[in-house]
Design goal:
The protein is built from eleven helices and eight strands. The protein is an alpha/beta fold.
């Protein structure tokens, strides 16, 4: 794998740890819950041939700060905007985000579209579209874990018990191919969650989303002209594949790539296909 340097960047009132490697136009790679920058390791070799990769630990995760607040769509999008200005100046950036990383990319595509060349979202639905459809076609039953994560103290205990065993449970239950997760990576995710403040901070992504509900995503009810690629594992136990249908209402310039039989953690389950699809999209004219 290409050599990676770690850099801490001050943005939106916090410091975020970023892994940086490669040469070329800047491509940001954003992880989701309950991971950190290393979730993109399977794609680094492929993507660093054409891009300078910036892979941050999101607010509340890994080596980044873990404040008690600031986990809503606007605030986390501001985190990303600050990183883009730090690494790109006035140039536009490319962004690929999985899970909550995709949520950040969606938000920025509405709030600051002029700073984005194009985005790729991996198993991360358009937020307003998701809220409008969460009660339909069985999706509500798939969100049981979101309700569980609202329980103060209990959810933190679940994640941190037995040296972070809850994190491993999340990874196992969200995937069809847990055998493709390197053991040292799973152990690193477990170690991260037991750091002081980490469990509460990572859960605050879910809690802020529920507290804000419709008002938090209301600014994304229209369209964005930013070109959007959606990469979707169709066997995701938490997010139905029909959430990719009707995307043209929100992103007229879009493409959907379905990965049949792949679960939520597509980076690990289909590493080669994800790398090729993201690279192809980011190099498109």
């Amino acid at each position: 794998m290409s050599a990676v340097e770690l850099e801490r960047v001050f943005t939106n009132g916090i410091r975020m740890q970023c892994a940086v490697t490669g040469e070329g136009p800047v491509l940001f790679l954003l992880h989701g819950f309950p991971e950190f920058w290393r979730c993109w390791e399977p794609q680094i070799e492929e993507l660093s041939r054409d891009f300078r990769l910036v892979i941050p630990d999101l607010r509340g995760f890994g080596g980044s700060d873990k404040p008690v607040a600031g986990y809503g769509a606007r605030s986390t999008a501001a985190d990303l905007y600050g990183l883009i200005r730090h690494f790109c100046g006035r140039k536009r950036a490319r962004v690929a985000g999985h899970d909550w990383g995709g949520y950040m990319a969606w938000a920025l595509a509405y709030l600051e579209p002029e700073c984005l060349e194009r985005i790729s979202v991996l198993n991360s639905p358009q937020p307003w579209m998701y809220l409008r459809n969460v009660l339909k076609r069985g999706q509500l039953f798939k969100t049981w874990y979101v309700k569980f994560f609202q329980l103060p103290g209990i959810a933190e205990w679940f994640l941190t018990r037995n040296d972070g065993a809850g994190v491993e449970t999340v990874l196992r239950t969200g995937t069809t191919r847990f055998d493709r997760f390197p053991r040292d990576y799973v152990d690193a995710c477990r170690a991260n969650i037991v750091e002081p403040g980490a469990a509460a901070a990572s859960l605050e992504w879910y809690r802020a989303a529920v507290r804000n509900a419709y008002t938090g995503a209301r600014f994304m009810r229209g369209t964005t002209d930013v070109p959007v690629q959606m990469v979707w594992g169709t066997s995701d136990p938490a997010l139905s594949p029909w959430l990719t249908v009707g995307l043209e209402r929100y992103a007229p310039h879009h493409r959907v790539d379905l990965l049949e039989g792949i679960g939520h953690f597509v980076n690990h389950e289909a590493p080669g296909r994800v790398g090729r699809l993201v690279r192809e999209w980011m190099l498109a004219d």
